[in-house]
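Propose amino acids for all 427 sites.
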């Protein structure tokens, strides 16, 4: 997942992007910090902002490192020295736009910025991210606000750092910077044709983050013809061989990302869930299932994605978040593994984390009969009846405010499992 965010100074990009990064477990990169670091280096080497040739040469050799973190933070280093805070000083503010106007300087910086994005799972902000640096980003946003509001935000930031300047001076400096950013010959600040514009005037950070997540979650999943044909064939087979009965399919959202949370008792469960869902699903499967080349090709063609269960849960959650934000429905088993005796197991909290952070609906699904027809150690399925019940979606917003995140995640998972058990008893 790559998210590109552009906008003028004071529009709220940094604060909003940090929060989105924390919510989705993404790395965060502020490209403006790279130009600021170059400006700081030029000050230390006593290079004039008008000395284009020396600045270009400096951009090519500058020992700059940016460490992106998944906590919504980043650290930037100049020749091994952490300068994350130093680059925000007034002396840097005064010349950074002048340096950023130089075409060859931008070319060097863009190379570094694109390198950061190669590993994916990144939210990057700046002035030309969606138009030049990452034109193929999956999601593009442009944040803006009334000039007076933007200037006041920057003035308050300066005051918090101990920098005392009249508001009028901040407004004047901002106007000049806006003009330079929008009129430079190379990579001017502009709105990408396919970017979503958000006016942050009068909006709290949480509101803007909610808008971004909401906009991301209205994308439609890509249609998989092979999946559709296979699902139809398996539906006919399940209907004829196991008398498959499905109720509550209308509870699946018609668009946007969502989660189906099902009880897990048999190898048949993912297949049955795919048949029961009117929308195509994506599955997170053990990476060992992909070792057989032919079988791996088959299940990839049916929307399966490999995960390493022994690795950190964060990787699986990050993959799931990316799929949901891209408009996909995913199947998750809250219990984490198949039941050995057909009973219910203690659920885990990852499902609740996704529901809260992404604001996506969770549809409880009860699958009944698969344990009897294809128990854990059986080689072939037996004759029997299989039924599926889907309940009303559970949302993180259904729960009260003021609950600690950890408690809220668990509360949601328990509510989903409670609904599954109710559906099971009535099936």
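Proposal:
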């Amino acid at each position: 997942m790559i998210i590109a965010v552009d906008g003028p100074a004071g529009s709220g990009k940094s604060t909003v992007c940090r929060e989105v990064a924390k919510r989705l477990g993404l790395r965060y990169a502020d490209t403006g910090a790279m130009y600021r670091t170059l400006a700081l280096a030029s000050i230390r080497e006593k290079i004039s902002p008008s000395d284009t040739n020396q600045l270009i040469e400096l951009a090519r050799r500058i020992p700059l490192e940016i460490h992106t973190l998944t906590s919504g933070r980043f650290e930037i280093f100049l020749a091994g020295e952490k300068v994350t805070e130093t680059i925000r000083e007034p002396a840097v503010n005064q010349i950074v736009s002048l340096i950023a106007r130089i075409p060859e300087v931008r070319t060097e910086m863009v190379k570094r910025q694109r390198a950061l994005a190669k590993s994916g799972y990144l939210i990057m902000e700046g002035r030309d991210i969606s138009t030049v640096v990452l034109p193929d980003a999956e999601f593009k946003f442009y944040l803006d606000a009334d000039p007076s509001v933007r200037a006041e935000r920057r003035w308050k930031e300066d005051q918090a750092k101990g920098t005392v300047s009249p508001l009028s001076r901040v407004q004047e400096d901002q106007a000049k910077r806006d003009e330079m950013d929008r009129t430079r010959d190379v990579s001017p600040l502009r709105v990408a044709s396919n970017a979503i514009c958000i006016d942050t005037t009068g909006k709290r950070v949480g509101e803007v983050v909610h808008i971004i997540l909401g906009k991301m979650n209205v994308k439609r999943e890509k249609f998989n013809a092979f999946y559709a044909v296979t699902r139809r064939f398996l539906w006919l087979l399940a209907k004829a061989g196991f008398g498959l009965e499905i109720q509550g399919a209308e509870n699946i959202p018609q668009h946007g990302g969502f989660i189906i949370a099902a009880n897990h008792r048999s190898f048949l469960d993912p297949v049955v869930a795919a048949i029961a869902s009117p929308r195509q699903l994506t599955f997170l499967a053990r990476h060992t299932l992909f070792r057989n080349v032919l079988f791996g090709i088959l299940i990839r063609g049916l929307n399966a994605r490999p995960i390493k269960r022994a690795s950190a849960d964060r990787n699986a959650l990050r993959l799931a978040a990316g799929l949901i934000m891209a408009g996909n429905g995913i199947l998750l088993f809250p219990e984490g593994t198949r039941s050995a005796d057909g009973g219910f197991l203690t659920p885990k909290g990852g499902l609740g984390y996704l529901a809260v952070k992404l604001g996506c609906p969770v549809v409880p699904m009860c699958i009944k009969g698969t344990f009897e027809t294809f128990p854990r150690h059986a080689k072939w399925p037996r004759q029997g009846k299989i039924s599926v019940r889907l309940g009303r979606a559970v949302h993180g917003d259904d729960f009260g405010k003021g609950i600690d995140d950890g408690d809220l995640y668990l509360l949601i998972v328990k509510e989903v499992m409670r609904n599954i058990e109710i559906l099971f008893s009535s099936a």
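The first helix runs from residue 13 to 24. The chain has two domains: 2-216, 225-426.
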